Amino acid sequence: MSIRYETRGPVAVLTMDNPPVNGLGHAVRTGLSEGVERAELDPGIAAIVITGAGKAFSGGADIAEFKSGKQLLEPSLRVVIRALEGSTKPIIAAIHSVAMGGGLELALGCHFRVVAKGTKIALPEVKLGLLPGAGGTQRLPRAIGLEAAANLIASGETVLAETLGKTALFDRVVDGDVLEAALAFAEEVVREKRPLKKLRDVKVEHPNEQGFLQFARNTVTTMSKNFPAPLACLEAVAACTGPFDAGLRKEGELFQKLMATPESRALQHFFFAERAASKIADVPSDTKPRAIQKVAILGAGTMGGGIAMSFANAGIPVTLLEVKPEALDKGLGTIRKNYESSLKKGKLTEEKMAQRLALIQGTLSYDAIAQADLVIEAVFEDLGVKEAVFTQLDQVMKPGAILASNTSTLDVNKIAGFTKRPGDVVGLHFFSPANVMKLLEVVRGAKTSKDVLATVMDLAKKIGKTAVVSGVCDGFIGNRMIERYGIQASFLLEEGALPSQVDRALEQWGMAMGPFRMNDLAGNDIGWAIRKRLYVEHPELVYSKIGDKLCEQGCFGQKTGKGWYLYEPGRRDAIVDPSVDEMVVAYSKELGITRRAISDEEIVERCIFALINEGAKIVEEGIAQRASDIDVVYLSGYGFPIHRGGPMLYADEVGLVNIVAAMRRFARISRGDPKFWEPAPLLAKLAAEGRSFHG
Ligand code: T1G
C-alpha cells in the first residue's frame, strides 16, 4: 500500500501510507499523481486533502532510491508537486509529526497547509550533502522570507511548526486531530470560494541580492570547507528573487551537481550506516529489553564520571561507587565542575544542572548498588582488578542485573568467566570524554544473552550514544585498527618523517587529530602498556620502539607537559619539541637507516590503508557485523572525516584494487614486517573480483 484514496463528502482524502516515514518513493509519487487526477475528474469532489499515515506526514524523498537513481523515475517529485500546484481544485496538506525534505516540499506545493502543533519541520538535505531539489529553495523563501529560509536550508535544522505559525507557510496551526481540522478548513475554502494560493506566484523582495550572496559566501566558507552543499543551498535560495522557473532551473542544476559528489555519497552512507549499526543480525528486533531504572558505576575516575553524566543527562539515576572517600569526592567534584563549565558556556540552565547533579549519588559501599538494574565497571585496566570486581559484583548484584565492563581492550569472555552469570555480562566501551563522545562499542561475549544485547542497544539510543556491536578480540573494532595505524605512523618516523609532518598530513587530509597529537592527549603511557603486553602475548608482531624510547623519558604527553610535543601548563596546544625531533633523527641513525623525504600522500596512504586492511579482517572474522559498522565506529569515535564516509567507504571510493597495489609497494619500501602489508583475504578477494566493501 502506498496511497489510500477516500472521500469525506465533497473532499477527497489522499493518505500516504508507506511506513516507516512515508518516504516519497516511486509508488507513493505515482499514487499521489493518480489520486489528484482522479479527484480532478470527479465532479462530486470540490477539494483535496493530503495527509500521512503513521508517525510522519512524510520524512521526504526515499533516500534509499538515490543509489539506483530511482528518484528520477517519473513522476518525479517535482512533477507531482507541479500537478498539485496546478490543480483547479483546492489542495490542503494536513501535516503532523514530521514534514521534512521532500515531505515539506510536497506541502509547499499545496494551496493551503494545516499543521499540528509540535510537528517537526525541516529541509535537512544539506546534511546529506544535497539541497532541497523539489522546489524547496524557491517556495520556502516565498512563504517565510529569504533570510529565514536561507538559515533553515543551509543549516538543515529542525524547528517546531508553531515557531513559523505566523508566516504564510501555515494557514492553521492546530492542537488535536489535524485531519479533521483540515477537512473543516477545506469546506470553508470551498464555501467561501477562496482563491487558490500558489507560492510560485509570490514575489520575494530582497534589498540587495548580490549583498545577500556575498553574505552567504562569507557565512558558509567557515561552515563547510569540506562540503560544497551549504554554499549551493544559499546560491539556490538567492535565485528566488528572480523568476520562479529560472530559480527552479538553478536549483535543479545545483542539485544534480551535488548528487554526483563523493561528500553526498559519504553523508547518505552514514545516514543508513548509523541506523543499520543498531540492528543485531541474530537478535530479533522485538526482543524485550530489561527495564533499566537505576544504574551504578564503579570507579569515579575520568571515565566513570563521564559515564555517570551520560546517564544523568538522560534522566536516569546513577550511583557512583568508589572505595576511597577522597577518590569519590574528587570524582563528584569533577562532575560538578563539568556541569558548571557547561553552565558558564550557556549550554545548561541552573535548573537542568541541579536536576542532573541530584541524579548522581556517591557511595563507598557495594550494598548501596545491589538493587541497580545495570552496573558498569570503569576501574583500572588490569585483568586481575577486573576479576576482583566482578567476583564481588556477582555476589552483590540482584538477579537479572546487567554487569558491564568499560574495558577498552581486555577479554570480555574472561571477565564473564569471573561470574556465575556470564549471560548477564557485556562490554560497554565508552570513549573519553564519555559524556561527549557519541560512540559506544557494545562488546558481546560468547555467552552474552540476546535480551541483554537488546537492552543495552535500546539504552544507548536513550542516552544519545551511537552503539556498534563488536565481538571479543584485542582492542575490539576501533582500538584494534588504530593499533595498526599507529604502527605505520611510528615506522614513518624511523624512515624520515617527523611527528609534526605526519600529524599535519593526516589532519590536512581530514583526521580531527594526527596520531602523535592524539597519543599525547590520551597519554603515551597507555599505548606503551598495551605494547608491553603485546610484546609478551604476540612476540611475532614487529613494532617500532620509538614510542617506547619517548615513554622511557617519562614523556607521556599532555598530562606530563611533554610527549611528542611540548605543552604549556593548562594548555592543549601542541608545540613542536626540537629535542623530540632530534631523538627521532638520532634513532634512525642508531638503526642505520638513511632517512628519506616522505610525501604527505605516502603518510596518508600508509596510515589509512593500514586501518582499512585491519577493518577487512575484522569484518571477515565477524568481529564487526558489517563493513559500514566500521565506518560508524571511525566517524563517531575516532575523528575520521565525515566527508570521506569512514575507512571502508573511502576504500570503495579509492578502489580496492588500487589499495592492494599500494600495499604491495609499501611492503617493499617500509620498515617493519613485510607481512604487515599482506592484504586481508576479504580485501584481496573483493579487489580481484572488482567489487567493493559495500556491494
Ligand atoms: N528515506 C528513506 N528511509 C528513511 C528516510 C528517508 N527519507 N527517513 C527515515 N528513513 C528510515 C530510516 O532509515 C529507518 O529505517 C526508519 O526510517 C526510521 O528512521 C527531493 C532530495 C524522519 C526524523 O533527510 O531525519 O527529500 O533502520 O530511526 O528517529 O528535496 O528518520 O528502521 O530500516 O531515523 O523516528 C530528506 C531523514 C530526504 C529526513 C524520523 N529527508 N530522516 O526519525 O526514525 S532527501 C531527510 C530523519 C529529500 C528532496 C530531497 C528521521 C525522521 P530502518 P529513524 P526517527
TrEMBL record:
<protein>
    <submittedName>
        <fullName>3-hydroxyacyl-CoA dehydrogenase NAD-binding domain-containing protein</fullName>
    </submittedName>
</protein>
<dbReference type="Pfam" id="PF02737">
    <property type="entry name" value="3HCDH_N"/>
</dbReference>
<keyword id="KW-0443">Lipid metabolism</keyword>
<feature type="domain" description="3-hydroxyacyl-CoA dehydrogenase C-terminal">
    <location>
        <begin position="603"/>
        <end position="691"/>
    </location>
</feature>
<keyword id="KW-0456">Lyase</keyword>
<dbReference type="InterPro" id="IPR001753">
    <property type="entry name" value="Enoyl-CoA_hydra/iso"/>
</dbReference>
<feature type="domain" description="3-hydroxyacyl-CoA dehydrogenase NAD binding">
    <location>
        <begin position="294"/>
        <end position="470"/>
    </location>
</feature>
<dbReference type="InterPro" id="IPR006108">
    <property type="entry name" value="3HC_DH_C"/>
</dbReference>
<dbReference type="Pfam" id="PF00378">
    <property type="entry name" value="ECH_1"/>
</dbReference>
<dbReference type="InterPro" id="IPR008927">
    <property type="entry name" value="6-PGluconate_DH-like_C_sf"/>
</dbReference>
<keyword id="KW-0520">NAD</keyword>
<keyword id="KW-0413">Isomerase</keyword>
<dbReference type="InterPro" id="IPR036291">
    <property type="entry name" value="NAD(P)-bd_dom_sf"/>
</dbReference>
<dbReference type="Pfam" id="PF00725">
    <property type="entry name" value="3HCDH"/>
</dbReference>
<keyword id="KW-0511">Multifunctional enzyme</keyword>
<keyword id="KW-0576">Peroxisome</keyword>
<keyword id="KW-0560">Oxidoreductase</keyword>
<comment type="pathway">
    <text>Lipid metabolism; fatty acid beta-oxidation.</text>
</comment>
<keyword id="KW-0276">Fatty acid metabolism</keyword>
<keyword id="KW-0442">Lipid degradation</keyword>
<feature type="domain" description="3-hydroxyacyl-CoA dehydrogenase C-terminal">
    <location>
        <begin position="475"/>
        <end position="567"/>
    </location>
</feature>
<dbReference type="InterPro" id="IPR006176">
    <property type="entry name" value="3-OHacyl-CoA_DH_NAD-bd"/>
</dbReference>
<dbReference type="InterPro" id="IPR029045">
    <property type="entry name" value="ClpP/crotonase-like_dom_sf"/>
</dbReference>
